[in-house]
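Case study: GRAM domain-containing protein.
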Amino acid sequence: MKNQLAGHVFRTPISCQCDKPSSSSQSLVVTHDKVDRMKNMMNKHGQKADNFVHGIREHLRIGSTLSETVKGKLSMGARILQLGGVKRVFKQIFGIGEGEKLLKASQCYLSTTAGPIAGLLFISTHRVAFCSERSIKISSPNGELVRIHYKVSIPLRNIKRVNQSANVKMPSQKYMEIVTIDDFEFWYMGFLNYQKAFHCLQQALSQSQV
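Here is what the predicted structure looks like once written out:
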């Protein structure tokens, strides 16, 4: 990442760059029978239930395997319970600035050239931040393997625009692209509720400009 981003946008030092996801790299196998049964049970509630189940299906589909996805959810869930809620998780990982308020936390994936990374996307009155659900192995400067969480933090003032896009072949597969003032792109996908996350970010950006 460019030096001029220091102190503004930070990302965990790991050898992968954020790229626009391609449909060819995501032909991952999961079982959908349980999701289908849930969808059938909730059909009576109409379109909201259908959208919710599509969100679950998409979130599970992107994960490397169903078992790995579940392990990640359990790990993050245990951490949230241990600390007493997502607000405390956000504070522990990123700290809280003066007057900063957490608006929303959403489960999603960050797209990288190493593959999608599952985690939580935090939207606050000051920034957008992402932390992976599970720690990732990387090589330290001395060659040793260490485990760290992949983190991204982008101040709202450094966001140039936020774009919506979808896979042409799979319209339900939606992406959120965040472009910084230095033209770095961060792609998020696999939201359980994409529209709520997108609208929350739009509102946060609008209020930060007042």
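For the exam, be able to explain this: Helices lie at 33-42, 47-62, 66-83, 86-94, 194-208.
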